């Protein structure tokens, strides 16, 4: 069992299932930023008014795709894969808070 420390690691990685039209989701490992409970609440309050690209860049710093993590590439992901922002946000919150869905 892992030993608890009061400080949190600044980043963590998690697999996100990006929805694909007509098929199963594609798995992408993202590197996420740790946010405190207060910071997470602030982000959640801005969900309706914050552009998806800004949200994704606030919570993630990279991915395991061949394409580099750049604002243009993040924008392309979000434009071409309509459910990507929601999938990224949901995975982030589940991983950060420990609230994972049961299989």
Explain what you see.
This protein is an alpha+beta fold. It has a domain at 28-97. It contains 4 helices and 3 strands, in the order ββααβαα. A hairpin with a 2-residue loop joins β1 and β2. The longest helix has 14 residues, at 84-97. The radius of gyration is 14 Å and the shape is globular. The two termini are 22 Å apart. The mean pLDDT is 92.
Give a topology summary.
Blueprint lengths: L10 E10 L2 E11 L3 H9 L6 H8 E4 L7 H10 L3 H14 L6
Antiparallel strand pairs: 1-2, 2-3
Helix pairs in contact: 2-3, 2-4
Pfam family, one: Phage_TAC_4
Organism: Chromobacterium indicum
Protein name: Phage tail assembly chaperone
How many E-type strands? 3
Proportion of beta-strand residues: 15-25%
The structural class is alpha+beta
End-to-end distance, in Å? 22 Å
Largest sheet: 3 strands, antiparallel
Overall helicity: 25-40%
Supply the number of helical segments: 4
Q: How are helices and strands ordered from N to C?
A: EEHHEHH
Mean pLDDT: 92
Rounded radius of gyration (Å): 14 Å
Low-confidence stretches: none
* 3D shape: globular
Protein name: Phage tail assembly chaperone
InterPro entries: Phage_TAC_4 (IPR014859)
Pfam family, one: Phage_TAC_4
